[in-house]
Amino acid sequence: MSDENLQLKYTPTTCPYCGVGCGLNLVSQGNTLVGVEPYKRSPINEGKLCPKGATCWEVVQKPGRLTKPLIKKDGKFEESSWDEAIDLITKKFTEAHKQGGPKALGFHTSCRTVNEDCYALQKWARVAFQTNNVDNCARICHGPSVAGLSLSFGSGAATNPFEDVLNSDLIVMWGSNAVEAHPLAGRRVMQAKKKGIPVVVVDPRYSPTARLADKYIRFNPSTHIALANNMMYYIIKEGLEDKAFIAERTKGFDDLK
Ligand code: SF4
Question: How close is the Cα of 95 to the center of ligand 1, in Å?
Fold first, then answer.
């Protein structure tokens, strides 16, 4: 092995596992991935990783990993070349389009697909097949939150930076098990708790996140709207609302009452 191939190379990138988007360095030697190292400049995770991020490199070179297309022939999957697979996809899509027109086709991307690839797929669907049947599986989990965020804050995405968790007066985690599902987001909540910020977890399940709460509120599944309405009713009835904030920054409060 030449000296060049013995050198370790650090490539900063983003953990592919969950929506927290932690920064990390992939470590390679020659053409082989050999590990992951912290990327301390990432403001999201400050060099920390959960076990999923710390081991994300291991699957890349696993012998069982699927790296070539498989085509089913006579009921059995057989390895094929990319050219053969792409030709088959083109043939099948063209046939379906000829028979049923644009509505006969639908295109769906994974939420692990990067923006650029999603863009390329929708372009292919709209331009080559004149169809608007394009979707992404993020709709299943993020669709309701986009609607809720847009109505509440005017934007279908987060409205403040991650570190604002540490500037809160109170943290309410409703139906979120961040400690397990998004561990580096859960870490921020733990930091906030250490700082003395009270944490309330509202969840039917006594999750690891609920275990760290100062107050845990359990409700029966499907009764969360009743619980939210009840809390609003109590706040208004007792006159506990922030009147100045409501007057300055919200609309429709009288309708809510
Ligand atoms: S919390 Fe864990 S899985 Fe999620 S992005 Fe960070 S390292 Fe990856």
Answer: 42
- The domain ranges of the chain are 3-59, 88-158, 160-218, 224-257
pLDDT in tens, 168-201: 999 999 999 999 999 999 999 999 999 999 999 9
**Ligand 1 neighbours (beta carbon < 6 A):** 15, 17-18, 20-22, 45, 49-50, 52-53, 182-184
User: Residue 14 forms beta bridges with which residues?
Assistant: 23
**DSSP E strands, 15-164:** 23-29, 32-38, 70-73, 76-79, 107-109, 134-136
Tell me: the pLDDT tens digits for 204-237?
A: 999 999 999 999 999 999 999 999 999 999 999 9
Query: How remote is the CA of residue 103 from the centroid of ligand 1, in Å?
Result: 38
Picking from 182, 175, 181, 152, the residue whose alpha carbon sits closest to that of residue 222 is 175
Instruction: Please identify, in words, the CATH class of the domain defined by 160-218.
Output: alpha beta
Query: How close is the Cα of 36 to the center of ligand 1, in Å?
Result: 13
- As assigned by CATH, the class of the 3-59 domain is mainly beta
